[in-house]
Amino acid sequence: MSEQDTQQDSPSGKDPLVIFTPSGKRGRFPAGTPVLQAARSLGVDLDSVCGGRGICSKCQITPSYGDFSKHGVTVHPDALSDWNKVEQRYEDKRGLKPGRRLGCQAQVLRDVVIDVPPESQVHKQVIRKRADTREIIMDAATRLYFVEVEEPDMHEPTGDFERLAKALESQWGLTGVTAELSLMARLQPVLRKGGWKVSVAVHHDHTGAAPKVIEIWPGLHEGGLYGLAIDLGSTTIAAHLTDLEDGTVKAASGVMNPQIRFGEDLMSRVSYVMMNPGGDKEMTQAVREALSVLASELAEEAGIDPSLIVEAVVVCNPVMHHLFLGIDPVELGQAPFALATSSSLSLPTAELDLTTINPRARAYILPCIAGHVGADAAAVALSEAPEQSDDLVLIIDVGTNAEILLGDRTRVLACSSPTGPAFEGAQISSGQRAAPGAIERVEINPETKEPRFRIIGCELWSDEAGFDAEAAASGITGICGSGIIEAVAEMRMAGILDGSGLIGSAEQVGTPRCIAEGRTHAYVLHDGSAEGGPLVTVTQGDIRAIQLAKSALYAGARLLMDERGVDKVDRIVLAGAFGAHISTKHAMVLGMIPDAPLDKVTSAGNAAGTGARIALCNIGARRTIEANVRKITKVETAIAPAFQAHFVAANALPHATDPFPELGKVVTLPKVSFNAGGEGGGRDRRRRRRG
Amino acid sequence: MSEQDTQQDSPSGKDPLVIFTPSGKRGRFPAGTPVLQAARSLGVDLDSVCGGRGICSKCQITPSYGDFSKHGVTVHPDALSDWNKVEQRYEDKRGLKPGRRLGCQAQVLRDVVIDVPPESQVHKQVIRKRADTREIIMDAATRLYFVEVEEPDMHEPTGDFERLAKALESQWGLTGVTAELSLMARLQPVLRKGGWKVSVAVHHDHTGAAPKVIEIWPGLHEGGLYGLAIDLGSTTIAAHLTDLEDGTVKAASGVMNPQIRFGEDLMSRVSYVMMNPGGDKEMTQAVREALSVLASELAEEAGIDPSLIVEAVVVCNPVMHHLFLGIDPVELGQAPFALATSSSLSLPTAELDLTTINPRARAYILPCIAGHVGADAAAVALSEAPEQSDDLVLIIDVGTNAEILLGDRTRVLACSSPTGPAFEGAQISSGQRAAPGAIERVEINPETKEPRFRIIGCELWSDEAGFDAEAAASGITGICGSGIIEAVAEMRMAGILDGSGLIGSAEQVGTPRCIAEGRTHAYVLHDGSAEGGPLVTVTQGDIRAIQLAKSALYAGARLLMDERGVDKVDRIVLAGAFGAHISTKHAMVLGMIPDAPLDKVTSAGNAAGTGARIALCNIGARRTIEANVRKITKVETAIAPAFQAHFVAANALPHATDPFPELGKVVTLPKVSFNAGGEGGGRDRRRRRRG
Predict the structure, then answer these.
(1) CA-CA distance, A510 to B361, in Å (whole number)?
(2) CATH class of the domain comprising B7-120
(3) How far apart are CA A2 and CA B483, in angstroms?
(4) What is the pTM of this model?
(5) Chain-wide mean pLDDT for chain A?
(6) Mutation site, B193, B198, B327, interface A, largest A CB count within 10 A
(7) Domain A7-46+55-120 is classified in which CATH homologous superfamily?
């Protein structure tokens, strides 16, 4: 019926020509051919759930009339058949946008140009806020199909499910669909209630395993299908409730990972298991329950029935991966850091005790890259696609563990680095989580050594008029991760710290804010003691904690650069807490990340979460990341001698000047040094800290 | 390395010739080739679990020495390499039968003839008691593999499971194995305990879905693998605990189906669901719990760890099928008798709440043929293979429902017939289940009209000396299904019944044993009232119940014969209670089954249970029955007008004489008739019975 090209090639040259935009696909079809049918013949991406029965309205198109010289046609007003009863019924009931027709009803009569609007495309592009990211094209694993099922016949006895499967095959080309017992148990009343017309949600496995019927509704289901993109962090669990039809985020929320009560960082959780046999089961239950609660809260926020959540994609680090899956993570706590399983997993969410969503929903867990480089790093790789980069890109995702990727089209390397929780405000004397009252931004005047800061929940700087009144609600309670990084960097730029990280005395620095604390000094950022508030200081111990963390991060990046044989990278992508909260400039002052031109340093936000969303919205992305993960060169920091060397070398604080003066104040300070040991003696200092 | 034929074709004609018996396969191999390797190259069926490591002893072979003129070789005593240390270690530890060698250790040095004993064959033939049945060749879905797994390597990080999968692929050719989460959780400690040498049970899906690792043990697992063949009847649940290596039955047991408390027959259980919403869930739980208990009892009886039970095959009628699977059976109670699903099912036993066996065990449920013709009928078809019969065979399986198959190589037809529970002693005035004290055999002297009988639990007939003493233990308590059938048939042959099924009066028959009971008469089989025991009679109501049941059975068989266009069949196979308990002769006297020469009537025992065992032992049988079921012509008795006609016509009791006098006493009776209506007025009599 279709002819895959222009009239010159056509044996029936007088059939009307149909040109689809924006695809430009064209062909000739006999007069009377429905537009939907023409679109399908040509492989034009025009949606339909009801299969052309005029009830789902997914196939809306806009015919264009007039002279289309670039296409070589003139479209007459009678190019399509008249507006029909089905369209009128739909118009009366729901309304169609002006100029729209239903593609399954409008028939081609003369040459015509037909525009497929974005919302009528099956493989819609997801609108994303960042301009610099790759497109997400909708191609969800779970899709809705409307089918008419043959009624049972005693003379040709087959099961209702077998006739449903036959309908899916004949009407949608789906072969060999299967279903769980619980779906079989729902089947018969729903088929009869729908008068043998039903909508089914079918999950397509990306590995090619048999498609599974997840849910069934009588008649046309118009409630939508939803999925959860879950970023299961050591500290925070974040989830995006996503529309599986157009990729829009209907609700997003995060909760604390309840496993924190078993240990702040991953290794302390592994230790908990070692010390408490069965402790892994407690942690597994805790995180699964938290996810179930989070899912139902998101559904409530979005105002949807939680049973419409039919998929979940989960990304996480290896320890969280094992603890979520119910696998004892003890092997991840010791060399050779063997994962129980590293491949992606596709399984029922019921096996993960996600009790609040559809009981037949499916989970997809991204693959792990190595024992220390998890599915979260894979998700970052999926989101940032270093393997598609023409220039050499360094991608750093900072959490309690840092995931680091380095690569380009030729080769991608990955490692993780145990930065510890200092960047999140933990293990800092005045540290606290990011919450109202926490100091998050810091500036120190290099002349006066006086600080100004901002706290979370208040738009004003501390030296601006009205700050005290606005800050009164929360008070000034402590300093969070981004605040401590800025404070340390500003202290260095203001000459309060020397290159080895030592805080000078009041005399050395020239400010009474440097106070003695045992054998070392501390810098007073805020003294609320007069009003009964806290004394917020940055102690020598805090400096050391930040130095250890940033050394680990830097050493990881350098290790990958060594492996790749380069001294510098073309660009840097900062993901996770970086970019969102941590100031790039201050990070570079601290030497957290290798130097790079500031315009070559970009922020990717929650790249792991974005990777989870991509895998949720596009089934092909699952195959992509699984293939890419196999190609990534894994570098294990724990056993690389070079990592130790880089770690020690990175202990110093290199910049005594603002590396990007054009962005703010220009500061040039003399080299300062308070201790005899000079710069770079990281090992000595570490020993001293232990003493 | 191998050469697939004789020396003429061989380029290296001087290599030793190896001839395997009983297969006759032969080839030349370089001196030093292990026998196991030669066997594998030639496709000789020689077992090995450890893959030739000399630890499993499955590859035992017997070399033959001397002159083998029929094979054209002379085997010298030094044809194989010397007995080695590995063989000596095995001999010391376990002992080898005289003349045996380990095929993986013994190397071919000169021409040799090697016998593979039956127990060393992978595809062993299962020894079955009946001579007339098809072979079962062992080819179980779940098999044991010993593998050596690569240790984890930080430089090439992969999960332990991925390395196990790789080992199964490289050492056993199994590709793409998967596992459930709970296996992943067991994996790491077992791999380390076994020093990276483990045994795994792998389930192969007959549909070609990915093989699944079901269980893992450190080192060589020698505890065996077991499966359950389950015949889930309306009244009785029977299970055979079967060794998956050689097919032997380790324990067999049956329990009452606890659903009986919801209704004796299937339709009363369906009614229970209709009257009690949620009643199906109660029944599902009851039968699943009974099966779990039965499984653990069987394991205990056989002295095996129940976690070694890794498979279950289930056959049952459609209502039991749905109730077991957790599907409301209400649609099966009304036309068009639509099954929720008719295909075979392969699923985790955990979904069926079989909690006492291996938590990752797999269940296989045979396909249903139609809404009234279930997986039990499919199992009978698998066991009796009518599609392979050269002559036309009628297969009848009597339970509370009767399954009837008719066919040969050209075509097979199937139906079920609602005989009701009368054949099992239910709905009979003195009826009882088959238990000690129940009358099970009856003879009536046609001259004196005096009966003699046997009861269950006593070897003597009631008129033999010592009977009273032996029967005293149980007493004479009632009459069971086989007893009532014999009683009615004997009453007919003795002239106590007329052709329409009416019992004559004492005067008409000439015996005081015919007593008045309302408007009809009853025959006293046993009067224990003097000793305080029961009066066991056969009432007119009992006769009617048996007539209805036998008419239904006969009508079903006739309906299939009509469909096939035949008046008689070449042979009859009786399965289920038939043959095992019901006398073939008496069944034919009653007209339960079409007439056939007695030597063409055989008994198949529990054919449905045998079908379950076949499907358990041989994965190919699953494909076979699934293909055959699709080809069977389903005949629905409930809507066939011919069935009603046959039913009415079959109401009469045709034989007034023993149809097989050569087998016993010769009886020729005058035609007897006690009522004016004469023979054949079935409809009148049914109306009267209702009045």
Answers:
(1) 75
(2) alpha beta
(3) 74
(4) 0.84
(5) 88
(6) B327
(7) Beta-grasp domain (3.10.20.30)
